[in-house]
Write a structure and sequence with these properties.
By secondary structure, the protein is of the alpha/beta class. The protein has helices at about 10-25, 40-55, 75, 110-115, 155-165, 175-180, 180-195, 210-225, 280-285, 295-300, 305-310; strands at about 1-5, 35-40, 60-65, 80-85, 95-100, 125, 145-150, 170-175, 200-205, 225-230, 235-245, 245-250, 260, 270. The chain has an 8-stranded mixed sheet with strand order 1-4-5-3-2-6-7-8, with helices on both faces. The longest helix is centred in the first third of the chain and has 14 residues, at about 10-25. It is elongated and about 70 Å long. Pfam families: OpcA_G6PD_assem, OpcA_G6PD_C.
Length: about 350
């Protein structure tokens, strides 16, 4: 069921949702959290689809905040709120409210969202695209116990990691970090199987891929060893190599789906390591609402320190230029007869 409300307010939206639940015969609320999505019209459809898919695991009230840009000074002065309510099969396993804010109301989105939050339920705020520099200091971000961003969607993802580290607050997280959860689990399990001392590590992946940087910072922070960051054509993160005195531990994924784990003294094995979609990543983040201390430590390690710890490659003697031949000694000049 879909209900459209134009030039409305939060009180009318709440009343319409209650009536809609009664009309479809489900007056009881069985939702576990409120998910606030802050986006624009371009990304609203994909974000809402991912949130609806994730709601099958986490039934929730989804509040989508779409800030509509005003083109003229007069329209910027006029504040208007339009809403679209979805319940039943159109809203996954919960209920959805799409809010379109116009004019001056764009600067006061928190006053519209606050009355729509589920009582006594946690709040998660998600920015699928551009996010403010200070998530916890943002009026909408301040409403949430968890704040989810995706630095992969930024214009300069690696630089965005530095900005996230400077403004980090407990509860912040990043889907670029969530993408490497299977990699971290696989590498940790490999090191648990064999008590090997890692001397150095190499992380290979696409350029400007923040997941690669985060994995490299996690390895450098946890293992306290130099970590090299090398480039490949992708897709995404392609390989991790841990160097030990007994041989290398290599986790290689060339096709974005199936990986190969190589360990010293053991046969190579194939492991499933597919690239997950946004709905799966979001569902994973909604499973925990406490601060992620491991993400904080890795993020604060810093890309600059990672680059400083990268060992410089030794020059290849075969490619080194030959020593120039010594210049011939100047011939003595003959004295002129006077």
């Amino acid at each position: 069921m879909k209900i459209d409300l134009t030039e409305t307010n939060s009180s009318k939206i709440n009343a319409a949702m209650v009536q809609a639940r009664r009309d479809i015969g489900t007056p009881a609320i069985g939702m576990v959290l409120t998910l606030v999505i802050v986006t624009d019209e371009e990304n609203a459809y994909d974000a809402l689809k991912s949130a609806n898919d994730a709601s099958h695991e986490h039934p929730s009230r989804i509040v989508v905040v779409v800030k509509r840009a005003s083109r003229s000074p007069r329209s910027r002065r006029d504040a208007r709120l339009d809403a679209e309510i979805r319940v039943g099969a159109d809203a996954g396993s919960g209920e959805t409210v799409v809010l379109r804010l116009h004019g001056e109301l764009v600067n006061h989105a928190q006053s519209v969202v606050l009355p729509l939050l589920l009582p006594d339920a946690p709040v998660v705020v998600w920015w699928p695209g551009g996010a403010p520099a200070d998530l916890a200091g943002d009026p909408l971000g301040a409403l949430g116990q968890r704040r989810i961003t995706d630095t992969y969607s930024c214009e300069h993802p690696v630089e965005a990691l530095g900005a996230r580290a400077e403004a980090y607050a407990p509860g912040d997280t990043d889907l670029s970090w969530t993408r490497i959860t299977p990699w971290r689990s696989m590498l940790a399990a490999a090191l648990d199987q064999q008590a090997l001392s890692v001397a150095s590590a190499t992380v290979e992946g696409e350029d400007e891929n923040p997941s690669c940087e985060l994995l490299a910072m996690w390895l450098a922070d946890r293992l306290q060893v130099p970590v090299r960051r090398t480039l490949s054509s992708g897709p995404g993160l392609t390989s991790v190599r841990l160097s030990t005195k007994d041989g290398d531990i290599v986790l290689d994924r060339a096709d974005g789906s199936l990986a190969t784990l190589c360990m010293p003294g053991q046969p190579d094995r194939a492991v499933a390591l597919k690239r997950r979609d946004t709905a799966e990543l979001l569902a994973e983040e909604l499973r925990r609402l406490d601060p992620d201390n491991t993400y904080e430590a890795s993020l604060r390690f810093g890309v600059a320190r990672l680059e400083a710890s990268t060992p410089a490659a030794a020059p290849d003697p075969a490619e080194a230029p030959a020593d120039p031949a010594p210049a011939p000694a100047p011939k003595p000049k003959k004295a002129r007869a006077k």
